[in-house]
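[job 4471] stage=fold_predict status=RUNNING
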Amino acid sequence: MSKTNFKKTIYNHLILSYTILSVILIGSMGGYWYAQVSRMMDQEIVKDNMARLQAAQNLIEQNLLKKYEDNLQNKALAIGFIQDNSNLNLLLYNGWEGNLSKVFAFNNDLQLFKVGNSGITNVSVYFPSNDYVIDADRFYMHTANAQEAPFFSKMNQIPLKKWIVRVNANDEQVLSYIIKLPYDTPIAKAKGYFVIDVDVHYLKSIISPMLSSKDDRLVILDESGAVLFQVGGENSEMTERLNEIVKASLSEERVIGEPGVPGIASRLASSHSDHKWTYIMYRPAYSFELFTERLKKELFTACGVIVIFGIFMSFLLSKRLYVPISDTFSMMREKIGILESRARKTEMINLLLGVSLRAEPKEISLPDTSYCVACIQLTKGDSEGLKQCYELSPALPGEFIALNANEAAIIYYLASGKVFDSSELVDDLKALQRIAGPRAAFQAAIGRQVQNFKDIPESYRTAQETKRYHFIFGKNTVIAYASTQALNADPLLFHFEHYSNALKAGDQRAVNEFMDHFLTALLNGEAQIEAVELAVLQLIAQLYQCVIELKLQHMLPSSNLTEELKQDTLHGTIESIRKMSAQITGRMNAGGNQPHAEVVRTMKEYIAEHLHEDLSLQILSREVALAPAYVSTLFSEGTKSSFTEYVTRLRLEKAAELLIANPRLSVSAIAEQVGYRNVQYFHSKFKARFGVTPVQYRRLQQGFKDLQTL
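[job 4471] inference complete, writing structure tokens
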């Protein structure tokens, strides 16, 4: 073999050896990283799923449903301790006949209970022994007339003190909880049933922030394996597969969601639940694997390019070996950095919600630093656009977190030694509003300052509470939690009878004056949101009571009156109430005084039947359920005389009739029968009316009869 052929052979062997070695090394490395990425991703999904399941279970059972159960049981237990004042106690044992005022008062109690517990669609009490129903919206004299009549008819077949899922008469999915009345007396026969209905859609809206993507699914099953409700994408095939996981008693399993798309399903067994419910969370793998799969493809492509490039370089460099593995590692570091950035965003959202997986995020836990969370609600634009404006503005130290398209949060980093002044954060957010302009309009609520990163969820919670004050201060405002704590928590007192009297009299001017005073008092009273909402609820209840008394129920909306009238802001709510009040006064003026005449007729009948008893405006006002001053006005308009003049005239005319009809009946007995306890006073009033004493009047009338006989 010649020297040239020998060198050529060595050269070819070198190239072949390098190629084989490159393929083996790069293939082994690529395969190893491929397996590692898949395994780590599956483990992280399973851990994240279990943490979210436990947080969802605590939120639903220990916070939301537990609150409803406690409030309902407290309401029921109050019957036994407030025997004289409990409207419900009286209705349980006496029925509704003759107790309409108690019915309406209890209806108002149910409305207050419903408004005070967010998420409740209705509160009902079914009285089987007297066959009627009272709920937060209406009173049904017969159960058959109630919208939920089929449900009440099966009440004795439904388990008590357990949450059941059903569809109500409005085709809304609700969770219902029933207790027997009287409460806590297992031996006694049920006098009634207390039922609360919780909107499943409301529960879903509370739980949905725990889902990281639109295709995540959270399914909750009762102890029999039936689906209570599910949050996220709804797919019957996926629900069946999740049921198979429950039957197989698996803690986690890789399942197929849509055709050809894998995912991870995790199960929290019913033994962890007070209600024996099972929680299952399914998360499609592509929401995590999309970038990972791209990384894998790029990894294989890079390996192939490296092999080809190495062969080409081996031709050029001959015996010199070089494998550009450093470029591969550089690319991998870049891709992993992107993955970490996305993971950090998820971790920050979990931190706000109180379900963070990491014990101590180094980027958040800073020495000598306190924290404050601001919640942002966009009224125009999206959170990503606002984030770009935030990064360009000279903001205070903090981190912007886009929760979804319309909501965001900012975690501010504050110096611990410095006195906290929320006005600095208010000014910072207002500056961001000016920079964002109308293309990304928003309103913001600032929570309280916390000293430890573990308390950030508490700051986020107080910011969420502060968001409610946008109802008072209006849209696109910036409100700090500290400023709301200085507001007055005492209830605001109003003379709602002035508003009621004005409505019944059809006096729109007086109605507007009351509404203007009401709005000014709420805005200038520096009251907390609970006091303002209570005052608005009382006003709506007064409006509802007037509509019932005037028999104008047909003017009420088909939906709940409170939900129909309450708007996003206080000004909007007052205007909607003012509009309905104008419709009522217009109807009163157009329809004449027919309702007034009916009231006057009722009062006249009562006076005629009770002449022998003590009569007063207060007694009469209770009979017709109107204010004494308004009763006096109606009586004067209807009889053209005052209440006292009318009663005196009627009593004396009745006494004159008795003097003639019963000659043997004494004057003192007649005086007592017409309501006079003092005979001398009766004599003076009778003489002032007829010009003679009662005895003289009887003699004159008897003599006149004798004369006619002759």
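[job 4471] summary: The longest helix spans residues 3-81.
[job 4471] exit 0
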